[in-house]
């Protein structure tokens, strides 16, 4: 998978996908994202997700704003303690095959938001 396939948590708590991610993951606003994490989440902060055509109580709708797609994941990130308001969280997305199922791994790069980002 391309090294420029990324997602970023916006200061609003939305998970936004860059244009490479949109293309590689075949994202559109008729799909949903389901996000989970592994046993080592407290240590590594890695998340996993699948893109699906079916909505259920664990999925987030994918929406479009201008040319970009996002999911309103604020509630999830709040519940697992990700401080997206003070930290800029950029995820590198890689494909993972587990039990013959395709998943995507969100490996974070975290840094403090600049003062300009907070205004």
Verbal overview:
The protein is an alpha+beta fold and 119 residues long. It has one domain (6-118). The chain is built from 4 helices and 8 strands; from the N terminus they run E-E-H-E-H-E-E-E-H-E-E-H. An 8-stranded antiparallel β-barrel has the order 1-2-6-5-3-4-8-7. A hairpin with a 2-residue loop joins strand 7 and strand 8. The longest helix has 6 residues, at 19-24.
Write the topology of this structure.
Layout: E1 6-9, E2 15-17, H1 19-24, E3 32-37, H2 41-44, E4 47-52, E5 59-65, E6 68-71, H3 74-79, E7 87-98, E8 101-112, H4 115-118
Distance between the termini: 35 Å
Q: Number of helical segments?
A: 4
Written as H for each helix and E for each strand, in order along the chain, the element string is EEHEHEEEHEEH
Number of strands: 8
Please give a quick description of this structure.
This protein has four helices and eight strands; from the N terminus they run E-E-H-E-H-E-E-E-H-E-E-H.
Question: Which key terms come to mind for this protein?
Answer:
119 residues; alpha+beta; 8-stranded antiparallel β-barrel; 4 helices; 8 strands
């Amino acid at each position: 998978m391309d090294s420029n396939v990324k997602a970023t948590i916006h200061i609003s708590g939305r998970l936004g996908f860059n244009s490479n991610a949109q293309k590689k993951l075949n994202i559109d606003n008729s799909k949903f994202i389901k996000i989970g994490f592994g046993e080592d989440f407290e240590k590594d902060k890695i998340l996993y997700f699948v893109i699906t055509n079916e909505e259920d109580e664990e999925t987030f709708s994918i929406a479009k704003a201008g040319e970009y797609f996002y999911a309103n994941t604020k509630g999830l990130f709040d519940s697992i303690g990700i401080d997206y308001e003070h930290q800029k969280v950029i995820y590198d997305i890689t494909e993972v095959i587990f039990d013959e199922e395709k998943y995507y791994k969100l490996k974070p790069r975290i840094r403090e938001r600049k003062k300009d980002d907070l205004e």
